[in-house]
Every structure is written in structure tokens, then in C-alpha cells.
Design brief:
alpha/beta, five-stranded mixed β-barrel, about 250 residues, 6 strands, elongated, 6 helices
């Protein structure tokens, strides 16, 4: 790979990062929202490095002893001033960011991962639930109410949860699921709520699900299963904050 090609590759990777972070929400498939400034800064640095390389080439810049080294390398049949051809593989992720984004994590990942441990909430930290019906909750919030709330305030309440469909496996049934990034896709964890009621929609379908806690175990204790008797399901667009366990933000 000659110097000109190296310059083009730097510019291509930088442009891919900036396109993804500035003009789309696709970066949220790979990292948390808070890392957007880092992606933008990285893209700018790569473009600047490419520009510097291009300027040096236009000025006829050559490394010291470059002519001698090139002659000696040619005499031995090798040119060590060039990067290995395998470096061209770096163009693949850059082009994918510009032309075709890899698919997001979904049901396949969730089905092959363990559930995210739900943090313990102190007894005094459970505020009174609002009278709204159905009550919007996150999957984690629903699980905490079911397993840890000593007041059992969730009993009989209609709740609305959002997530995507993950088949439960050979035993049948399905889960409402969210994949949560701690930092990026590499450290993702999964939150699931078992669904009782309708047949499973296609995997990866995003749904708003309304229902009540499915009695299994003792409500307000760790024996209670995070499960829902579903009354209604409504397909929704994948939210902008798909890789958090927050109430969904709709695409703008």
C-alpha cells in the first residue's frame, strides 16, 4: 500500500466516523450516546492526518535516505516502505459506515446471553406508583417491583413495557427484551420479561406490550418471576435509545 493509498484510507475511515456520528443515529448500534463526541473527535483527527499526509506528498516530502532505502529494497525484491496489502481490509468497516451499516444486535444475541442482573433497590427507595393506567415501566423497573417491592404495589396494576421479541427456545413462548450497553456493543447485557398470552410475533419485532404481572412465586420476593400476562401488543418503531433500558424515545 503506497503513501497515497494510506492517505486515502485515513480519510475514508475519518469520513465514515463523522458521517455515522454527525448525520445518523447508527452509532448508537455500537456505543452509548455519551461517546458521540469521542467518535466525532476521532473522525476529525483521522481526516486531519490524511490532509497532512496529502500536503507532504504534494510538497515532494521524502523520508531521509528514502532513495537509497528504496534502491536497496528493490535490489532484494522487497519494498519495506509500503504497508502490507492486508491493511486494505481497514477499508471494509469504513465503507460499511458510509454505505451499509451492519445489522443491530437483536434476538440472536439476546437468546445466547444470560440476563442482566437487576440491581437491588433499598426498601425505602420505592416511591408510590402514579395512578396512570397503563403504567409505563422499564423492564428493569418492572422486575424490581415484582421481586423487591415489599408493598407489592404492582399487584393488579396494568403496565406497559417496550422491547423486542426474543423466542424462548425449544419450550416455546417468548420474551420481551432490551439489550443494554454499559459502554459499547462488546459489553452488552440483556434484560428479559417472560410473556404469557399471544403467540410469539417474529423475532426482533419491537412491541409496546400491556398487561399485568403473571403470578409465579411470591410477589415482592426473589421467588417472583418477571413475567407478564399480556392483554394487548402494538408494533412500534425501534426507539432511538434501543440499547438502554429506558422508556423509549421515538425517532424524530
Amino acid at each position: 500500500m503506497r503513501r497515497l493509498a494510506q492517505t486515502a484510507l485515513l480519510a475514508l475511515v475519518g469520513a465514515g466516523l463523522l458521517h455515522t456520528a454527525l448525520f445518523t443515529d447508527l452509532y448508537l448500534r455500537y456505543v452509548k450516546e455519551g461517546l458521540r463526541p469521542v467518535l466525532i473527535a476521532s473522525g476529525v483527527v483521522l481526516l486531519l492526518l490524511g490532509a497532512v499526509n496529502a500536503c507532504l506528498d504534494l510538497r515532494g516530502y521524502r523520508e531521509p535516505h528514502d532513495s537509497h532505502d528504496h534502491h536497496e529494497a528493490s535490489a532484494h525484491g522487497h519494498d519495506h516502505s509500503a504497508a502490507p496489502k492486508v491493511a486494505w481490509l481497514l477499508a471494509v468497516p469504513a465503507l460499511s459506515l458510509l454505505l451499509y451499516a451492519p445489522p443491530a444486535l437483536g434476538a440472536y444475541t439476546a437468546a445466547h446471553s444470560n440476563g442482566k442482573p437487576v440491581a437491588t433497590t433499598p426498601r425505602e427507595r420505592f416511591p408510590a406508583l402514579p395512578a396512570t393506567s397503563p403504567l409505563p415501566l422499564t423492564l428493569t423497573g418492572f422486575t424490581q417491583r415484582v421481586q423487591q417491592d415489599p408493598t407489592r404495589a404492582i399487584r393488579g396494576r396494568q403496565v406497559q413495557l417496550t422491547g423486542f421479541v426474543t423466542p424462548a427456545g425449544p419450550g416455546g413462548g417468548w420474551y420481551l427484551t432490551r439489550i443494554v450497553f454499559t459502554c459499547c456493543a462488546a459489553d452488552s447485557q440483556t434484560v428479559k420479561v417472560r410473556v404469557h398470552g399471544p403467540d410469539a410475533p417474529p423475532a426482533n419485532t419491537w412491541l409496546a406490550v400491556t398487561g399485568t404481572w403473571h403470578p409465579a412465586g411470591r410477589l415482592g420476593t426473589k421467588t417472583a418471576e418477571a413475567a407478564l400476562d399480556v392483554r394487548e401488543t402494538h408494533p412500534i418503531a425501534q426507539p432511538v435509545n434501543a440499547y438502554t433500558d429506558d422508556l423509549p424515545l421515538t425517532p424524530s
